[in-house]
Amino acid sequence: EPPGPPELLGLAPLSPGAPPQAPDLLYADGLRAYAAGAWAPAVALLREAMRSQKELGRTRQDCGARCAAEPGAALPEVFFDIPGSESGPRQASGFWERLLLRAALRRAECLTQCAARRLGPGGAAQLRVGNALRDAFRRREPYNYLQRAYYQMKKLDLAAAAAHTFFVANPTHIQMREDMAKYRRMSGVHPQSFRDLETPPHWAAYDAGLELLGRQEAGLALPRLEEALQESLVQLECCRAGCESPEEQQGEEIEEKEGTGNQGGLYEAIAGHWIRILQCRQRCVEDMATRPGRSSPVPDFLPSQLRWLHEAYAQVGNLSQAMENVLSVLLFYPEDESAKNSLNRYQAQLGEPRPGLGPREDIQRFILRSLGEKRQLYYAMEHLGTSFKDPDPWTPKAFIPEAFREKLREDLEKRPWDDEPLQPKPLIHWKDVLLLEGVTLTQDSRQLNGSERAVLDGLLTPAECGVLLQLAKDAAGARSGHRGRRSPHTRHERFEGLTVLKAAQLAQAGTVGRQGAKLLLEVSERVRTLTEAYFSPERPLHLSFTHLVCRSAIEGEQEQRMDLSHPVHADNCVLDPDTGECWREPPAYTYRDYSGILYLNDDFQGGDLFFTEPNALTVTAQVRPRCGRLVAFSSGGENPHGVWAVTRGQRCALALWHTWAPEHREQEWAEAKELLQEPEETEEEEEEEMSSRDPAPEPPNRRLQRVQDKSGKPPRVREEL
Ligand SMILES: O=C(O)CCC(=O)C(=O)O
Ligand SMILES: [Fe+2]
């Protein structure tokens, strides 16, 4: 078992029964202690902040549930009833208003008292945790500080656990990747030390269940799969309970512009508020189905859990339970052929119909409630002009107003990744990435006279450039025995390209150093993170191709050269300079969405990159290569570019193309990674590393300032203009 939060060492004792303190204050104190190098108090305060925040959430849920059940606090049924659905007898005017108001007042009173009882007088104010803090906790930011503090305290197992927990939710965090590798080497590999301390229970159970099922252990899988479903529903309830507090709705700015904004009177305001609560509740299905650190949910998560349950029960021969689950699947998808077939088979096997055999009650309740909400949301969409993005593919067509069905069909026909729900806010802001990595923005689109272009500096240290240049050199030497072949673009240059997989294979064969091949992988991920954060914070970008390319001037053939090292082109379409059009069709690599060129050196003549107008003639901007400089741009016709002739020396660069299309993700990257997985280092090396090499990881000082900055504005990045 990994050390879980309770045993995270006998530092300042955490008092389990004590009422929670204000998490923001605890967190700020924790960060101050951290900055002062007071590691043990920092750990205690950060953990207490997390505990308090959890405890507050639990209080809110408990109070919410208790007060909803309070006599007289239930909202009158008719409040949920809307035109179009059958309703009870109409009462005298004013009757429902009084009922509604009384219920609302009663419930508000109950909530206030409940909070005061649980949290002390004025406790309700603590329930409000600021947005920034909530986001920080959701990103598991405290674990980043914890891992560094534990490292300083030489508690490597705890550092590893905390680092991993942070990493699970921040899989593109480059520094963390390095830290974890370091802990792994130093702590002598305790794989269990790298377990996620915060895995939501339904994911743990779900993964365990599927793994067992995959090993033909249906009997063992069943309790885990049942647990997964129960925990999923619990998680859903937690999320829904949060929808009633004001801060949960602040992400809804869009709504302000819509029909039920703040203007209007009492009824418009009530309706608007209620709609926002319903929208929030519906989104909880996605929240529950999204793994930590992922940006999109597992599609159709609940029905697929039911299908697994059905399969597992069928495998162990438990007919009635198998039937219960297959009937539940049919609640979502009444026309599901395979479910219908199974059902018929079971009915035939059982002989006569068994009364009392129906779908699962928990699922029945879930669907009824969800449909009730959808009905109201679609009604408001049609009549009040509010928006509703239905998270579920199973909603019966009859629920969707005619006018929106067409739109829905169009949405389904779009490229699948267009439909990936966008993150309400970027996971990592690109400026934060810059701060963390010490990268600077040198020129933006405006300064480069175009759209979606940027030059960033400081992505590589000179030593890293050296390693990659050496890699290119060793690979070229090993493969051809002479310095490269003729360039496909010009006969005045030689051209050598190296892919990540080739590099890994050569490293495997001992032809090039492992360090270089590993750096190549790591750096490509570094560029991807930055490009995603800068250009596509709401939609994941994948690497689709990585190529280490060197172009060298052929001596004695440079006089009166008129040609280019790389003719003007666009990266994802066929450019027609005559019309300025760019055709996004083969032979262009149409799935490329963003391009990046990371330069490794500047000791050559010529070889600047330039952008042109779509006529391929008028130069709009130029970029001089140098070590660690990245030029990144969207790959379409808006960015035609070329490379001036390299007239002396050798120009090396890492060219990377990114895509939104997951199916065009670079397979070779993962293969290369696999090949380069190194055997663990020896004890002596660990000792040496612990004592000398990296005694104190940089505290994330600059992030600290940002968190403490009460104005809420991130600090400005130094922009070298
Ligand atoms: O190396 C460069 O600067 C640009 C190369 C390029 O545009 C390409 O390979 O598509
Ligand atoms: Fe290009």
UniProtKB/TrEMBL annotation:
Region (Disordered): 1-15, 672-721
EC class (word): oxidoreductase
Keywords: Dioxygenase, Endoplasmic reticulum, Glycoprotein, Iron, Metal-binding, Oxidoreductase, Repeat, Signal, TPR repeat, Vitamin C
Residue ranges the record marks as coiled coil: none
UniProt EC number: 1.14.11.7
Keyword Transmembrane helix among record annotations: no
Bias kind Acidic residues: ranges: 677-689
Cofactors: L-ascorbate; Fe cation
Reactions catalysed, as given in the entry: L-prolyl-[collagen] + 2-oxoglutarate + O2 = trans-3-hydroxy-L-prolyl-[collagen] + succinate + CO2
Keyword flag Signal: yes
Pfam family, one: TPR_leprecan
GO CC annotation: endoplasmic reticulum
Spans through the membrane: none
Compositional bias (Basic and acidic residues): 706-721
One BP term from GO: collagen metabolic process
InterPro entries reported for this sequence: Leprecan_dom (IPR056585), Oxoglu/Fe-dep_dioxygenase_dom (IPR005123), P3H (IPR039575), Pro_4_hyd_alph (IPR006620), Pro_4_hyd_alph_FE2OG_OXY (IPR044862), TPR-like_helical_dom_sf (IPR011990)
Domain Fe2OG dioxygenase residue range list: 546-660
GO MF term (any one): procollagen-proline 3-dioxygenase activity
Entries under PANTHER family matching the protein: LEPRECAN 1, PROLYL 3-HYDROXYLASE 3
Homology family: Belongs to the leprecan family.
Name this polypeptide is given: procollagen-proline 3-dioxygenase
Gene coding for it: LEPREL2
